[in-house]
Amino acid sequence: MALSEDLVLKLKSKDLYITTVESCTGGGLAYYITNIPGTSDVMKDSFVTYSNEAKIALGVSAEIIKKYTVYSEETAQAMAEVGLKQSVCADISVGITGSISRADPNNPNSIPGTVYFAIKSKNKIISKTLNISAERRFEVKQKIIKEVLQTILEFLNC
Question: Burial code of 118-130, b = ≥16 C-beta within 10 A, e = fewer?
Fold first, then answer.
C-alpha cells in the first residue's frame, strides 16, 4: 500500500488524474489506488475489460488485437490510449493485459505469466513486458500491480 500512497500523493502534487484499463488484473490496480484516502482527488473512473469483446467495446481497435493479439505491448498501448479518451478527466492512463496462470483457450498465443502494460499521458507513452510466476493467481496479480505502481511513479518523475 505504500506505493499506492506514494502514487496518490505524487498525482495530487502534480494536479493529475489517473485511470486504468485492466484485463488480467481485474481492477486490482484501481483497487490498490482507491484504498488510499483522498483518491477521489486523483481518480474518477477505471475500466475492467476482461475479454476481447470488452476491450473492443471500450474502443480498442479489433485490428490491433487481430494483428498483434490481445497479449501484446501494442494492445496494452491501445488500452492506455482508449482510457484517456473514455475517462471523464484522466491525464494518465494505464493499460494492462496478459495471461496469469493458464493458457487462454480464446487466445492461442497466451503464455502464462507474461503480462504487458502501458502508461500513457498526452505527450508520452511507455510499455513493458513482465514475466511473473507465483503459485497463486492472487500473488501474480500483486506482483504485477507492484511493478506497475513503481513504473507509474518513475513515469511521473521523468
Answer: bbbbeeebbbeeb
Q: Cα–Cα distances in Å, from 144 out to 28, 30, 61, 103, 148?
A: 9, 13, 25, 18, 6
Q: Which amino acid is at 100?
A: I
* DSSP element (H, E) containing 137: helix 137-157
Domains contained in the chain, number: 1
Q: Could you tell me the residue range of the domain that residue 58 belongs to?
A: 2-157
Spatial contact of 75 and 49, defined as CB atoms under 8 Å apart: no
Please tell me the distance from the alpha carbon of residue 69 to that of residue 86, in angstroms, as a whole number.
22
The identity of residue 8, as a single letter, is V
Q: What is the DSSP letter of 43?
A: B
* Residues 23 and 52 sit within 8 Å (Cβ to Cβ): no
- pTM here is 0.95
Q: Tell me the pLDDT tens digit for each residue of 11-59.
A: 999 999 999 999 999 999 999 999 999 999 999 999 999 999 999 999 9
**CATH code assigned at 137:** 3.90.950.20
